[in-house]
Structures are given as structure tokens and as C-alpha cells.
Amino acid sequence: MTSFEEAGTEETVTCLHMTFYHPCQEDKMMFRCLNFRKREQVRVDEMPKFGRDSNVCRYNLMDTRVSRIQFALQFYRKLDSSEFCFEIKNMSKKTKLLVDQTELGYLNKIDLPWKCIICFGDYQILAEIEEGESVDYFETSLHLAEVPILQERCPPSLLPIMENGISPSLFPSQGKSPMEIDENE
Questions:
Q1: Distance (Å, rounded) from C-alpha 91 to C-alpha 105?
Q2: What torsion do the CA atoms of 120, 60, 126, 15 make, to the nearest 10 degrees?
Q3: Start and end of every FHA domain (predicted)?
């Protein structure tokens, strides 16, 4: 037998990809303590925390508006399943955590969807789970976004569109009173 034949089967590792955005990142550098350069291994019995307390949190956010411990993640396997999941728990007494459209108060927790957006304050984090098989550890891969993950969405205009397809909002009225138009003109 060759060494190739004797080698163990390579095991894939679950990876949590997290892309961070804050509008003041360039000025305040609140992500300066996060390692954006490489994947990081986390043992499955650890519960990584995100916040500003470097003595407690594995992932530090350098911002006084962030709680000492903002949120924590727990890696686990579903009962009677081979599927691995993450659970997210809000650890902040002052700030609610939004996971997609679900609002979490202090100590509330939910399963992290395979792709979701986590928000608190002005922070936006896109979380994506890459499935793996390892039962000993998982990995995190952190990324920095230069543009907002959530785009402000303007509600559709409630103004009527004229038959010619031109919206009246495109032409300011310049102080004129409304004028009635015959539909045959």
C-alpha cells in the first residue's frame, strides 16, 4: 500500500462566512481587531462571542456603542440528524438583534438560517453557512463589505402615472396650482 492509500479520508469542515458592514468603518475602524485574512478554526465546545470586551469575546468590535457581549453563536447537530447548525443568541440588554426579519431581545435565541442578515445598531452582517462534516471544529471566514449589505429601499411612488408614461413627480410644479386636463388633449 502506498501512503496515499493509507491516508485518512479528508473531512470537510462547516464554515460560517460573515461579511461585516458599518457606515463609519473607514473613519472609526471598528473592525480593526477582526482577522479578515484567513479562516479561523473554532472548537465545537466553544461558544464564540462578538462584542467589545476583549477578555470575553473572541471577535472584538471596537465601538463603545456595542455591548460588552453583543451576541454569541453555538454550533450543534440537530437531534436524529447529521445536519449541523448554528444558533445565535442576543447577549445585549440594551440592543435588539435582528436576524432577517426576526427581532431578538436579551437572551432570545434562534437557529441561524443558512443565509441571513444580522443587524444591530448600524451594523450589518451577512452570514452564510457552508456545510461540512467535521464533528471536532468549525471554521469562521470573515469579510469586510465596502457597501451596505442592506440597501435602503424607497417605497414605490403612489403618484399616478400619466398615459404617456411620464410620472408627474419628474416635473416639479414650481408653485403652480393643479390644473385640470381634458383627456382628449
A1: 8
A2: -140
A3: 50-121
Collapsing DSSP to helix, strand or coil, 144 comes out as strand
Provide the CATH number for the domain formed by 15-151 in this structure.
2.60.200.20
Q: Write out pLDDT tens, residues 102-160.
A: 999 999 999 999 999 999 999 999 999 999 998 999 999 999 999 999 875 444 445 45
CA nearest neighbour of 144 among 15, 17, 14:
17
Are 140 and 15 spatial neighbours (Cβ–Cβ below 8 Å)? Answer: yes
CA distance 183 to 180: 9
Question: Which pLDDT tens digit goes with each residue over 59-101?
Answer: 999 999 999 999 999 999 989 888 899 999 999 999 999 999 9
Q: Which of these, 38, 24, 61, 33, lies nearest to 142 by C-alpha position?
A: 38
Q: Provide the residue ranges of all domains of the chain, joining segments of one domain with +.
A: 15-151
Sheet hosting strand 15-21, strand order edge to edge: 40-43, 137-144, 15-21, 123-130, 115-120, 97-99, 102-104
